[in-house]
Amino acid sequence: AKHLGKNQLALYGSSMRGHSIRQLTLESDLQKALQRQEFQLLYQPILTLDSRQTVGVEALIRWDHPTRGLVAPADFIPVAEDTGLIVPIGWWVIETACEQLRCWSEHYHPLSMSLNISSRQFLEHDFVARVEEVIRRQQIQPHQLKLEITEGVAMHNPQIIARKFEQIQALGVRLMMDDFGTGYSSLNYLKSFSIDTLKIDRSFIDAMLQENGIEIIRTIINLAHNLNMDVVAEGVEHEDQAQRLVELGCEYGQGYLFAKPMDADRLKATVLDPKTG
Ligand code: C2E
Ligand code: CA
Ligand code: CA
Ligand code: CA
């Protein structure tokens, strides 16, 4: 008898093998991963650049795969986006992060929590109502929650997006523009929408000490400040970068210089500040 299972995939012919089969396998694995609770969140501190105080963390997802170990988001988020699985995964992230915030608030001084929100999830019609519901159920302070959105959302109906932004800010939740400067509509986005914080993409910080690097960062920071936004520099790895960013008036930084993403236990042991008395 012929083998069933994986060998059947040979039916698709050689051109379909490789990429798309990997994609199919990954899709069903991701579905199982959700059911089996194989995802976990790591937390990377965000600090004030001048006094180096941790003011918040960004939650970054990992897949704790039974055989492959910890899988980075770059290896599964794109497929999750393509298949729509990013939506249930995204709700798992929001729920888990809010539960974590609630849990920390009992014993530690409050921090803010930034979450990466895929455009696809953001565009769901009941997105705002569901966020509100989670906040209420987990009893967290809305201003502790920050949603990181990329300019991908700006490709959609601007009136609808602008209204969603307003509704989210009306809840007290803050909006951050992630990866600023990497796309082609970054400026358009700032013109059309109200955003609280701008995150300068790591590629600009990397190139900071090269020719014109400083001027570009200075321009982004001034632009943000003129529009009443705070600025977070992503991917700060070197002390001289941090120094220059302080001189340029950048408020916040995140990067390996300060701390790598870490699990909740390590965050508790090394970063969170216990309430006393
Ligand atoms: P991002 O939102 O731009 O997140 C920052 C990434 O830079 C993280 O990678 C972080 O670990 C890394 N990073 C931070 N500091 C440094 C540094 O100093 N040097 C270097 N080289 N890298 C640094 P990570 O965790 O692999 O996440 C990659 C991307 O995956 C994120 O980029 C985000 O777009 C996406 N992602 C992560 N978690 C989620 C999630 O829960 N939902 C969604 N939709 N996307 C997520
Ligand atoms: Ca982010
Ligand atoms: Ca980013
Ligand atoms: Ca980035």
TrEMBL record:
Residue stretches making up the EAL domain: 23-275
Signal peptide extent: none
Name of the protein this chain belongs to: EAL domain-containing protein
Protein species of origin: Lyngbya confervoides BDU141951
Phylogenetic lineage: Bacteria, Bacillati, Cyanobacteriota, Cyanophyceae, Oscillatoriophycideae
